[in-house]
Design brief:
Blueprint lengths: L1 E3 L2 H13 L4 E6 L5 H13 L2 E6 L19 H10 L4 E3 L3 H4 L19 H4 L3 H16 L3 E5 L3 H13 L5 E5 L19 H6 L2 H16 L2 H12 L5 E9 L17 E10 L2 E10 L1
Helix pairs in contact: 6-7, 9-10
Bound molecules: pantoate.
The site of pantoate has 10 residues, from strand 2 and helix 6.
Length: about 280
């Protein structure tokens, strides 16, 4: 497994792979790797000849009051895990490598799906994500990139960038990987105490109730109302949003479902103590 810090080195390696006719899959991460990330890596290995993983805690997607400084950094352990999963190349750039002095170009999705929900509570987040993901795409130039569905709005934003910028990259979404109690795996779960981890399965319970109601009633308002009723059972959750959205536009859905092939996401963000968690559940096709 090669480990590289430099943009030019990564470009040269992936360029030589492409010249040899290899298909390259890419998994961007911020490290603190867990089984959710490793599932993305396994998928990458299935669909391509070469797998690249990046580990970069991207400062531009955090607001000043957020957890950039305390975000878990476990590089040695991460590298061991990636080696055990036969990753070909790990890109571990410094901040200066990605944002050299004088960097002045940003990628900003100005409309849905980068509006509302996460964007409302974290106004500059998607500009940071869009910029770093585009930079990483330009460096690695993968044929395929794998993104988890837990960050469903991020997935929609990435799909929008690929479409709008005519990037020849296939984005493969991967289902959320969960603990036995339903808690979605996340690097931020390390902020939770054991007791909070038990409590945090409430997010998934609310999403499941939303899905069940939607499947039974075929009406978004009824499903949304039932979701909030369920949420009221968990007084320790400080809910930021619960929504049912179109998976591409991320606009909230309304009215009745007439089409049996519908597909949507139920999404939630909530705080337990000082830890902010998000989750998403795909409903329908
Ligand atoms: O999902 C993440 O871990 C990050 O937002 C990403 C895509 C690696 C960009 O920094």
């Amino acid at each position: 497994m090669e480990i590289e810090e430099k943009v030019q080195k990564v470009k040269a390696i992936t360029q030589s792979w492409r010249a040899q006719g290899h298909k390259v899959a890419f998994v961007p991460t911020m490290g603190a790797l867990h089984e959710g990330h490793l599932a993305l890596v396994k998928k990458a290995r299935e669909v391509a000849d070469k797998t690249v993983v990046s580990i970069f805690v991207n400062p531009t997607q955090f607001a000043p009051h957020e957890d950039f400084a305390s975000y878990p950094r476990t590089l040695e352990k991460d590298l061991e895990k990636l080696k055990a999963h036969s990753v070909d190349l790990v890109f571990v750039p410094t901040e200066n490598e990605i944002y050299p002095y004088g960097n002045a170009t940003w990628v900003d999705v100005e409309d849905y799906p980068a509006k509302g929900l996460e964007a409302f509570f974290r106004p500059h987040h998607f500009k940071g994500v869009a910029t770093v993901v585009t930079k990483l795409f330009m460096i690695v130039k993968p044929d395929i990139a794998i993104f988890g569905e837990k960050d469903a709005q991020q997935l929609a934003v990435v799909n929008r960038i690929v479409k709008d910028l005519f990037l020849d990259i296939e984005i493969i979404p991967h289902p959320v990987v969960r603990e036995n109690n339903g808690l979605a795996l996340s690097s931020r779960n390390s902020y939770l105490s054991e007791q909070e981890k038990q409590k945090a399965c409430a997010l998934y319970e609310i999403l499941k109730t939303t899905a069940k109601t939607l499947e039974a009633e075929k009406n978004f308002e009824k499903a949304r109302a039932q979701a909030w009723l369920k949420a009221a059972e968990y007084s320790y959750l400080a809910i930021e949003y619960i929504e049912i959205v179109d998976p591409i536009t991320f606009k909230p859905l309304h009215g009745n479902i007439y089409d049996s092939t519908y597909s949507c996401f139920a999404v939630i963000a909530a705080k337990i103590g000082s830890t902010r968690l998000i989750d998403a559940l795909r409903i329908g096709g």
